[in-house]
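Replying to the earlier thread about multi-chain prediction with a worked example.

Input:
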Amino acid sequence: NAGVTQTPKFQVLKTGQSMTLQCAQDMNHNSMYWYRQDPGMGLRLIYYSASEGTTDKGEVPNGYNVSRLNKREFSLRLESAAPSQTSVYFCASTVDRGYGYTFGSGTRLTVV
Amino acid sequence: QKEVEQNSGPLSVPEGAIASLNCTYSDRGSQSFFWYRQYSGKSPELIMFIYSNGDKEDGRFTAQLNKASQYVSLLIRDSQPSDSATYLCAVLPQRGSQGNLIFGKGTKLSVKP
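Result:
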């Protein structure tokens, strides 16, 4: 089992460029999440999808959009990248919140 | 605003000692508690969860929960250099809430040989 797979692992963007971070899980999980992690700030929730067909804003949604493509896949899009979006992005999933989350390996994004 | 607080550390312990990591939370109705380990440059990995007051042991790890004091801790016995990592505490809000896991900012543990 691959678990939660994120692509790409590393990316450098210029300010104003757009990109989509991909996430897929093969554990038949219902809920999926996107976090960003910055030094001293901890994990901050960007968007989540409690179930297929639904998405909701988290703590820091501005500048991002998401798509729950199907039960397996949850993508995060940056429409116009800004240096403030330089961060490590983690996708996570769970069958039920009471079981905790499984995290992907992360995407390290630098916006110059 | 529901909060989870951890001392950022670094917490430095000698090899073979007991490392004690602490976490407090603000939502008295919280129902489930998780400890994640995150090595530098890696993703968080779930190592322990606890739902009931008291202790839960798994190998060298013991999670302790005191809901009255809103306090959860992680003890690592016989600490090894390979335990050096940042440990994240996460709390699930009360039953019936649609809230997601709330993460603390983590405590960095350094185990010295």
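The interface with chain B takes residues 33, 40-43, 45, 48, 50, 58, 90, 97-106 of chain A (CB under 8 Å).

Feel free to reuse this layout for your own posts.
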